[in-house]
Specification:
This protein is α/β, with parallel strands linked by helices and 264 residues long. It contains 11 helices and 7 strands. The protein has a single domain, classed as Rossmann fold. GO terms for molecular function: oxidoreductase activity.
């Protein structure tokens, strides 16, 4: 049964492509109102037009580079002025770079923490105050299975997603007695443009192509759990089982799966 989101206004960051764009479509299909944030206003405007043509659903577009703090502050203020009530926030925007730690430049590392962690926390804090005033809302943070199992060439990326998981769990517990929900989404590799930056040579994509998740199926799963008290969404299931076993037997897992851990 499809989730019904009529009357719900939901912010999606990184909405111009990949999981973000699929979330926009699935939210509109369910009758919700997508509020899209991304750097490319032309892409967002094109999506907005197609959404109206397909579903006669109004959507809103906001141009912002969430890597830039003043851009984040500006778009937050504009949205809060333009809309009386926002119901949900999906922190989807993120960036990754797969490389050995010593080979990474400081700017690459700073960018990952700025977008994956600092921007996500700032967006959550500002809109949480808004949700709290209505005693209603849902924050969905897109993390990664990499936040549970770190691998070579992903030390920084994994640490940012580990931070997202920790933040989400702590915040969820703080809000336990309210009607504001927090869900963290831990994904394996997904077929998106993320890898254009993370893996420009295509080595990792080639090695894991048979395991890659379909972004539309991910979006459906997330949308079906909006405005529910859902602790985590973990995909694929076999990877989540592996991550739980890893927590119990880390040394054995690292030895047995050494080849799989070095696919990057």
């Amino acid at each position: 049964m499809q989730k019904q989101l009529t009357g719900k206004k939901i912010i999606i960051t990184g909405a111009s492509s990949g999981i973000g764009e699929k979330l926009v479509w699935r939210i509109a299909e369910a009758g919700g109102t997508p509020l899209m944030i991304a750097r490319s206003i032309s892409k967002l405007t094109a999506i907005k037009k197609r959404i109206w043509e397909h579903y006669q659903i109004e959507s809103y577009v906001y141009e912002a580079d969430l890597l830039v703090k003043k851009d984040r502050e500006a778009v937050i203020e504009f949205i809060l002025i333009e809309h009386e009530q926002i119901h949900g926030l999906i922190n989807n925007a993120g960036i990754g770079k797969f490389a050995h730690f010593l080979e990474m430049c400081q700017q690459e590392m700073d960018n990952m923490f700025e977008l994956n962690v600092h921007a996500l926390i700032q967006m959550s804090k500002r809109f949480l105050a808004h949700f709290d005033s209505f005693n209603e809302g849902h924050i969905v943070n897109i993390a990664s299975q990499a936040g549970k199992i770190a691998t070579p060439k992903a030390a920084i990326y994994s640490s940012t997603k580990h931070a997202v998981i920790g933040f989400s769990n702590g915040l969820r517990l703080e809000l336990k007695k309210t009607n504001v929900f927090v869900t963290v989404v831990n994904l394996g590799p997904v077929q998106t443009d993320f890898f254009q930056t993370a893996d420009p040579n295509g080595t990792y994509q080639e090695n894991v192509s048979q395991y890659m998740l379909n972004p539309d199926k991910v979006a459906i799963k997330i949308v079906n759990h909006l405005f529910e008290s859902k602790r985590e969404i973990n995909l694929p299931l076999w990877m989540e089982i592996g991550s739980r076993l890893y927590q119990l037997f880390p040394v054995a897992f690292e030895r047995i799966l050494q080849k799989q851990f070095t696919k990057k």
